[in-house]
Amino acid sequence: MFKENKGLPTRDAYGEEILALGKENPDIYVVDCDIGKSCKTLGFAAELPNQHINVGIAEQNACGVAAGLATCGKIPFVTTYAVFGSMRMSEQIRQEACYPKLNVKIACSHGGLTPANDGASHQGIEDMGILRTIPNMTVIMGGDFYSTKKLVRAAAKWDGPVYLRFTRDAIPFIYDENEEFEIGKAKLIKDGADITIIANGDILSVAYKAVDKLEESGISVRFLDMHTIKPIDVDAVKESIEKTGNIITVEDHNIINGLGSAVCEISAEMGKGIVKRVGIQDKFGESAPYERLLEKNGITVENIVEIAKNLLK
């Protein structure tokens, strides 16, 4: 059962873990794009100045610098906002990091609707979808502070390009510091027989509340944290379809080409299962409180519960 709590932003988890990794391994570098305060890399810059490069507001150049470092055996983390790391840099990521499969990590704060009042220009709602289409790219979003720390550490050990997405604002704790995570393997939070809910990132806590509501009404729910969008855990999705038949995906991302689309692809290839996608309804965000933006897109406990009950009628 989900326990209500305030939690912490996952960008804070990144700031803590990248500093710890840098102290352990001198090959870990941070390539900043002049927003280290927002992306929580000021501590890294202060304590490890020889492993830190600030290229200024020049994201495309940052990717090129990171690619060069990677050819020299370094493990660079390009750090910026999700809108810039996925779109302004997309050509450089494709050509300079993914095509030669270099060990470049793109670490981005302000993912999804969490920038809220900053408006559509800062809300990266397409990022994971864009980058999951590029060969050799791995795409990850942790569901809380502790899972993000573990996944940042796993990304540093992963051979090849990785995109990591973080939240600006605090999101609730789901896990504790002892939980372990593996890239490409979904975390089964709860098993069930009637319906499957698959969620990730900042929306994991919203989905968890919906799971509790459904179970209170006697519905058995299988609940997965799909922290890795690519490579998605195909076996976990197939097992869910075989066990429950019905799946609801929940994400803070455009419903096109995100988690929901990835699950639909597996279902279609199996030729079985019904998938309902809850997420941003293929429209830009706006300046408003985070919860209001979720509500306007139907990313709510009430909507998830209603969809589940309708599927089971």
Average pLDDT score? 97
The CATH architecture of the largest domain would be 3-Layer(aba) Sandwich
CATH superfamily of the largest domain: Thiamin diphosphate (ThDP)-binding fold, Pyr/PP domains
SSE order in H/E notation?
HEHHEHEHHEHEHEEEHEEHEHEHH
Outline: globular
Strand content: 15-25%
Separation of the first and last Cα atoms:
25 Å
Number of helices, where a helix is a run of at least 4 consecutive DSSP H or I residues: 13
Structural class: alpha/beta
What's the arrangement of secondary structure elements?
Blueprint: H1 10-24, E1 28-32, H2 36-39, H3 42-47, E2 52-54, H4 59-71, E3 75-81, H5 82-88, H6 90-98, E4 105-109, H7 127-132, E5 138-140, H8 145-157, E6 162-165, E7 187-190, E8 195-199, H9 204-216, E9 221-225, E10 228-230, H10 234-244, E11 246-254, H11 259-270, E12 274-280, H12 290-296, H13 301-311
Parallel strand pairs: 1-2, 1-3, 3-4, 4-6, 5-6, 8-9, 8-11, 11-12
Antiparallel strand pairs: 5-10, 7-9
Helix pairs in contact: 1-8, 4-6, 9-13, 10-11
How is this structure best described in words?
This protein has 313 residues and is α/β, with parallel strands linked by helices. 41% of the residues lie in helices and 19% in strands. The strands form 2 sheets. The chain has a 7-stranded mixed β-sheet with strand order 2-1-3-4-6-5-10, with helices on both faces. It has a 5-stranded mixed β-sheet with strand order 7-9-8-11-12, sandwiched between helices. α11 (259-270) links the parallel β11 and β12. It is globular. The two termini are 25 Å apart. The mean pLDDT is 97.
